[in-house]
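Entry 14. Ran structure prediction on the chain below.
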Amino acid sequence: MQNLFTAMLSFSLFALISGILLAIATRFFKVEGDPIVEKIDALLPQTQCGQCGFPGCKPYATAVAEERAEVNHCIPGGERTMLAIADLMGVEPKEIEEGPTAPMVAFIREDECIGCTLCIKSCPVDAIVGAPKQYHTIIAKDCTGCTLCLEPCPVDCIDMLIKPELLEHWAWPLPGSNRAELGHERKEQHHA
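Output, structure tokens:
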């Protein structure tokens, strides 16, 4: 019994000393991230869609901070995000790579879905639900419209639809912005 008590006491003392040394080491060897990368990453929409050519928002923010990428590659963030990043970086704003488009949402034609789960694996925001060999469906409020689910679908049963602009999410667009131009075009088409 004495040996058991001695072993437990020595392991407890070792754990305590190791904990204290690790706490001290974290203070002295603390690695801080680049604050400009963190600020740029906070401006991005965090969809992790890859439309910018990087595997996610954080790698894109790092590339912009290191001036390896332009400020206009974030398609989901749009003009407002590009202007905010350009202002933060102190560079001249540039045109967004793609023209103004209406927000899109994926839609799975369930009667054609074979339940392969390839679309689920490719969705960066987990907006697709379903099980293997069962129908899948999109959670529209979570879908960012990144189109990453289209390519892996072997039966081509996913469509991209224009996301309806709900009244509770609507706001006046900034004059002269891409969104204002898109709204004007929609109005002209409606009255035509």
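Residues 104-162 form a domain with the Alpha-Beta Plaits fold (CATH 3.30.70.20). Will compare against last week's run tomorrow.
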